[in-house]
Task: structure prediction
Amino acid sequence: MLYDSDFLDLWESGSRRHPLDRALLVLGAAHPDVPFDELADWPLGHRNRALAKLHCHQFGHRLVGYVPCAGCGEKLEVELDGRLLAESGTNASDERTYVEVGGNRYRLPGTRDLAGVVNETDAESAARRLVAGCVLGAGVGSESKADGWGQRPRLQGTEVEEIGARMAEADPLAEIEVHLRCPECGRESDEAIDLVQFVWAEVEARARRILGEVHALARAYGWTEREVLSLGAGRRAIYLEMLKP
Result:
C-alpha cells in the first residue's frame, strides 16, 4: 500500500529519470522487502504483472492512455483491463526463468538487461546484444558453443530470432501489444504498450493533486506539508470543501 508521502517521494525522485528507472522506483516502493538488484532482474513479464497488480490496487483496473497513429498522427485511445494482466500467467514460483536453444541456456531478460541496450539505435544490434547478455552457458547434456570470451556463444541472425521467439513464448507478458485501427486514416497496426507509462501517469497525477491540496490548506490554515498529509485524504477533503465560497 502506497501512501500520499510515497507518491510525492516517487514523483520527486523519478520525474527526471528514464522509464526503466521509474519502473524500479515504483516496484521498490510497493515491495520494500525485495532487494533492488532482485527487482532489476525480475523477468519482464513478472515485472509487468506486478505493475498491473499495483495499478489495480492503487488506481483501479482501467488503464487508459493514448498513442499517435503512425499514419496521420491522430491520438488513438488505448484501454486495457489491468485485472486480465495481473491475473495472467502463473504464480511467480511457477514461472520459467530460462529457455534452451541450440544447446545453450538463456535466462529471460529483465529491466537491467533492457537498460544495457537502451542506447542502441539499431534494432538488430540491440536484440543480438540483449540475447548475448542473457546466456547462462550450455544446457544439461549439451556442448556449449561459447567462443573465446568464455560464456557468450557466437549468434547468427536466425539464432537470435529463434531465441527471441522462445523467450516470448516462455514470458508472454514481457511485451504487451494491442491492435489498433485509426478512425481518421484507416491505418491498422500492432502497438507495443509500456505499462510503466500507465502507472507513472497515475503517480504523477496523484502527486500533483496532493501538492495542490497541501498548497490550499497550508495557505488557508498555515499548516506544514507534514501536518497536512497527517490529516488523511478524507479529512483533507472536508477541509477543502469548507474552503469553497
Notes: The radius of gyration is 22 Å. Residues 1 and 58 are 7 Å apart (CA to CA).
